[in-house]
Specification:
The strands form two sheets. Strands 3-2-1-4-5-6-7 form a seven-stranded parallel sheet, with helices on both faces. The longest helix has 15 residues. It has two domains: 179 residues, Glycogen Phosphorylase B (Rossmann fold, 3-Layer(aba) Sandwich), CATH 3.40.50; 171 residues, Rossmann fold (3-Layer(aba) Sandwich), CATH 3.40.50.2000. It has 16 helices and 13 strands. Helix 6 links the parallel strand 6 and strand 7. Helix 8 packs parallel to helix 9 and helix 11 crosses helix 14. The chain has 377 residues and is of the alpha/beta class.
Length: 377
């Protein structure tokens, strides 16, 4: 088949999907709606994927550019004559494809488009319903997204749900000491290390995480925080730590490459996420795959993964309870090795990218009318 993979931007998730598609027998083209200057470790497209050059893809997309983009998308479709357009997010790339009248359309939810954008206002809700009505198949990464899609009019029998999963060969427990804790002067028996890998923005609850850690670190001298990434709330986060006089207990690692990321997971005793919106969080799956128990906000996407055998939950937005949970785990940490083994097993059973990717190919077959019965993973 000739497939146009049409995405809002070019992210690590896009690269992973395109790399896997490049290993199939299909002819794959990449169409990019906008460029928001995301950091992608300077990774080029996979060799067997052809990028389509058009009016979009070089700058942030604006609604006032919509008509011009729509007309050029129609030209692209006439020129490349795809068998399928795989497009996401729902209200951007998939919506534009639906407006262009192309069928069969495989719409892919990126989580936040149905969790948040769909009910932003009446126009976004209409765009969501319009797109799903004109999609032969919708792909999502968890049961929460499936239920939302049904609520917005997508036929349940035309939804394929599967966790995007992670690379279990890359993210795995290791008995070898990476030396990271020693490098930081954090002695194994004297410290308890928490890992945060989420962006520093409101959607990921980074302020609540900072306040929760600051409160707990004032009461426990063992607590340390590995904080990866960065973002718009950097000044606020550092102010919280400085005001609580715990800045010396935090290591700001910055942007970490995919290659080096497992080293930080293996240096941690506990993974923490205070996110306000997630389907199946890849960051969470990476931690579980490395055998790291998790403490996460109690949003529906997290509830599908973090059960008492692999971690804990706390009420969304409640930094006081988060702080107490941290202190409880530090005081009662004998269960962590067993939980870490259960976390790895869960990742192997449900979060293996190699096992889950074929569900996307099933979605393509379903969309062109040759598929088997839909299976919800």
């Amino acid at each position: 088949m000739r497939i146009i993979y049409f995405s809002r931007d070019y992210t690590t998730h896009d690269l992973r999907f395109l790399s896997a598609l490049a290993q199939t027998q299909h002819e794959v083209f990449f169409l990019r709606l906008e460029n928001k200057g995301r950091v992608l470790e300077s990774q080029p497209l996979p060799g067997k994927v052809t990028q389509i050059h058009w009016k979009g893809g070089s700058s942030p997309a604006r609604w006032q550019d919509g008509l011009g983009l729509l007309m050029d998308l129609k030209r692209v479709i006439r020129t490349y004559r795809p068998d399928i357009v795989h497009a996401g997010t729902i209200q951007t790339a998939a919506f534009l494809t639906a407006l262009a009248g192309f069928r069969p359309l495989v719409s892919m939810s990126w989580g936040y488009d149905l969790l948040m954008d769909a009910h932003r206002n009446l126009y976004w809700e209409w765009a969501t319903r319009y797109t799903l009505k004109r999609s032969e198949v919708m792909v999502g990464d968890c049961d929460t997204i499936r239920r939302l899609a049904v609520n917005y009019g997508m036929a349940a029998g035309h939804i394929i749900s599967f966790p995007w999963g992670t690379n279990l060969d890359h993210f795995h427990p290791s008995r070898e000491d990476s030396g990271l804790r020693q490098h930081l002067g954090w002695k194994e028996e004297e410290t308890f290390v928490i890992l945060s890998t989420r962006g520093w923005s409101p959607i990921y609850g980074i302020e609540e995480l900072a306040r929760g850690f600051a409160l707990a670190a004032q009461q426990s001298s063992k607590l340390r925080l590995l904080m990866l990434g960065g973002g718009s709330q950097e000044d606020l986060v550092k102010h919280i730590f400085r005001q609580a006089n715990v800045l010396d207990k935090v290591y700001f690692a910055g942007q970490i490459s995919f290659q080096d990321l497992p080293e930080y997971h293996r240096a941690a005793d506990l993974y923490v996420s205070a996110s306000h919106s997630d389907g199946t969080s890849i960051s969470l799956l990476e931690a579980l795959a490395c055998g790291v128990p998790a403490l996460v906000s109690d949003i529906p996407g997290n509830q599908e993964w973090v059960t008492p055998d692999v971690g804990w939950q706390f009420p969304l937005g409640n930094s006081n309870v988060l702080s107490q949970r941290l202190l409880d785990v530090v005081r009662n940490n004998a269960c962590l090795p067993e939980m870490g083994r259960a976390a790895r097993l869960l990742a192997e059973q449900r979060g293996d990218w190699e096992k889950n990717f074929p569900f996307l190919l099933e979605a393509y077959l379903k969309a062109v009318g040759n598929g088997k019965n839909i299976v919800t993973f």
